[in-house]
Amino acid sequence: MARVLVTGISGFIAKHVALQLLQAGHDVVGTVRDTAKRDQVRETLVRHGADHTKLSFVEADLMSDDGWEEAVAGADFIQHLASPFPLQQPSDREALVPPARDGMLRVVKAGLAAGAQRIVVTSSLAAVMYHPKHKGDFEAGPDNWTDPEWSAISAYIVSKTRAEQALWEYLDAQGERERATVINPGLVLGPALDGRAGTSLYVVEAILKAAYPALPPISFPTVDVRDLAALHVAAMDSPNTAGQRLLAAADTLTMQEIALILKDAFPAFARKIPTKELPAWLVKFMANFDKSLRSVTSDLGRRRKARTAYVTEKTGIAFRPARDAVISAAESLIEYGVVQPPD
Hints:
Rossmann fold; globular; NAD-dependent epimerase/dehydratase family protein; 343 residues; 38% helix; seven-stranded parallel beta sheet; alpha/beta
């Protein structure tokens, strides 16, 4: 069994990756910025069947060199998932680039120097699908790239694009491309392992809580977190994935389609769930006054899809329908009390 470093282990996706690694018998070292999170993560993973004797932690921050030499020591593989993903987007489009790009390079450099066999880096479809020339329905493959200079995209999309571009540039300069694999997931849904799911499940949470009276006409290529975690594990030591970008998504759902799935699956919430769709022109107008809407204007009038058959061929990982991910996400939010049934 291998020793695997999981960065940002307290995150929604990272906990699932760590759980599958532990269930497979690997030793897992998780990085946390705050040691107070160790007990929370350990309790969550043990509750879901992980062996606590194979789990340890190191304190490390993406913006500091401290701790990374200790973190990578003896690691056969690295799963790098830590990256900023704020719910509220900063107005400075480049604000998230330093922690995403420089932090990622800090981990990769340390891992390569320590002799890690493979570094699996979690990027995003945000680094693949956003280009002003793509309108209407558009299917993206691993050769597509977001244009980070496009003024319509958010700080998060800019950060994921610049970070991944910097990664491949560095690896090529070092002649080490084959020692990395990048995974580009879409909207990640599926079950939370505890009540701390972070930003990923906010779309489902907001619809269940009726946070908006109507929904913007935007869509998301969607992936279940359990399939995404399995892909991370499969990509770790497969010769088929060396130096590859692996797009991770099942079908594409609009927010209205997500709402209709929830309305059908959870009758107790049906009366409150919004299902009306705002016209695109109104969303653009409202974005002039509501900062939270500015980050979605680049999605209006576009239905992006991900080409992923090649990923299944390379890894054997097939993606379950997005509907299943939506329902299991909602079930876990209700189970952990993040969302309360209406009176």
